Amino acid sequence: MSDKWLVGVDLGGTTTKIAFVSFYGEIVHKWEIPTDTSENGKNIIVDIAKSIDHHLDELGETKAKLKGVGMGAPGPVDMDNGIIYEAVNLGWEKNTPLKDLLEVETGLPCVIDNDANCAALGEMWKGAGNGAKDIVAVTLGTGVGGGVITNGDIVHGSKGAAGEIGHITVMPEGGFQCNCGKTGCLETVASATGVVRLALQALEESSEDSVLRSGLQTEGVLSAKEIFDAAREGDTLAVSIVDKLAFYLGLAIANLGNALNPDRIVLGGGVSKAGEVLLSPVDKYFNSFAFPTVASSTAISIAKLGNDAGVIGGAWLVKNKLD
Ligand code: ZN
Could you state one GO biological process linked to this protein (predicted)? Predict the structure, then answer.
C-alpha cells in the first residue's frame, strides 16, 4: 500500500493545484489548472478528473497507482457527508455533494475538507508544525483563513465553520465592513487588502512624510508588499501601520491561544512572506495578551510550505481518512 500515491487537490477560485504525493508526504509531481467557473462551475470537477488521468498517463502510470483524492475546497464543509455548504467563488449551488461528484468523475475514493483546514494539516504534517499535534494555522492572503488542529485532527464544529479565524471581531466599534456581513473582522485589517486599507487610512489621517505617500501619488495604488518593505527600511508611518496590523493579529491569536494552548500558531499566506518585520511585533502583542502559561508555551512561526500546504494537507486526508 505504501508505494501508492495520494492525490492532493487545492481547489481555488481562479486556479486549482493538484499533486501526486508519496505516503510519506513528499510531492512526486505537481501542477495546476485554471478553475473554470463559467456556467455555475459545472466543468470544475470534470476538468480535475481529466487532468489527473492526463498526468498519470504522462508519467506512465495507471489509476491503480492512486489510493484516492483529498480535496480542500473554498467554503465550509460537512466532511462526514462530503457536502460543501457554500462556495460563492465557484458559482456552485448551496449544499453541493462534492465528494460524490468527485468520486463519480475520478473513479477513486475521495475525501473533502475546507481549504484552510487542508493548509493547516499540510503544515502540521510536513511544514512549520513539525509534527506537533496541536496547532492553529492562520492564512493571511486576500482574505484570512484558519484551521484548528487538536490531538492531530481538524476541529470542524457544529456546521463546518470552526477555525473561521478571519472573522474574529477585533474592532468591536468603528470597524471596517467585512465580506461576511459583519464589521470589524480580523480579515478587514490583517489580509493583503486589509493592510492596504490601514495604510490608506493612516495616510489620510496624518500628513507625515512617508515613502508610501510618494509611492501612492506616482503609482495611484499601494500593495501590501510595499508597506512591509517600507517598514523594513524604517519608514516611520509604515512601521506604525504594520504595528497596528500586528496589534489586531496578536490580539486575535492570543485569545485563540488562551482557548487552545496549541504547541504552535503558524502564520501562512502571502502576507506572512513579510517575515520578521511582521512576526516580531505580532510576537510582542501575542505575549502581552496571552495568559502567561500560554505565552511561554505556545510558539508563533511563519509557515514553511507556501503554496504546497493545501495539496499536502489533501494528501494527509487520503492517508488518514480513507480506509
Ligand atoms: Zn467577517
Answer: glycolytic process
CB of 262 within 8 A of CB of 134?
A: yes
Confidence label for 203 from pLDDT (cuts 50, 70 and 90): very high
Same domain, 38 and 146: no
Alpha helices in the chain (DSSP H): 38-41, 44-58, 98-106, 115-126, 187-190, 192-205, 211-219, 224-232, 236-260, 276-289, 292-297, 309-321
User: 11: closest CA among 313, 224, 311, 315?
Assistant: 311
Domain of 248?
Answer: 130-304
Answering whether pTM is above 0.70, one says: yes
Using the mean position of ligand 1's atoms as its centre, give its distance from the Cα of residue 143 in Å: 9
138 and 107 in a common domain: no
**Residue 122 CA to ligand 1 centre (angstroms):** 25
**How remote is the CA of residue 212 from the centroid of ligand 1, in Å?**
27
Q: Which residues contact 169 (CB under 8 A, 6 or more apart)?
A: 175, 182, 184, 185, 186
Q: How many domains does the chain have?
A: 2
Instruction: Give the pLDDT confidence of 235-259 residue by residue, as tens digits.
Output: 999 999 999 999 999 999 999 999 9
Q: Are residues 80 and 177 in the same domain?
A: no
Distance 137 CA to ligand 1 centre (A): 17
159/237 same-domain check: yes
The pLDDT assigned to 1 comes to 58
185: CA distance to ligand 1 center in Å?
Answer: 5
CATH number at residue 246: 3.30.420.40
Same domain, 166 and 267: yes
